[in-house]
Write a structure and sequence with these properties.
The structure is a single chain. It is built from one helix and no strands. By secondary structure, the protein is mostly helical. It has a domain at 11-37. The mean pLDDT is 77.
Length: 81
């Protein structure tokens, strides 16, 4: 009726702390790797000089007769009148 087990195979199980430490190291390495490959936009900064543009004329400016990215030389005076 009762059976005696004479041969038992023992399996080695690593300690729980060692498994958790290995998972932590894996998560840390993956986080560092993915952060280097795909940086977040919340970490981005923009650095540019701020140039103020102010007219040296009195009155209201109605139009500016230059196009985007057009080269304008300093001695040129342009008047629409």
């Amino acid at each position: 009726m009762w059976r005696i087990i004479t041969s038992r195979k023992w399996r080695w199980y690593p300690p729980v702390g060692l498994v958790l430490f290995a998972l932590f190291l894996l998560a840390l390495v993956l986080h560092t790797l993915f952060d280097r490959l795909t940086p977040y936009t919340s970490e981005a900064t923009l650095q540019a000089p701020v140039v103020g543009v102010a007219p040296n004329v009195s009155g209201t400016i109605v139009s500016v007769s230059v196009q985007d990215n057009q080269t304008v030389h300093a001695p040129r005076v342009s008047s629409a009148e």
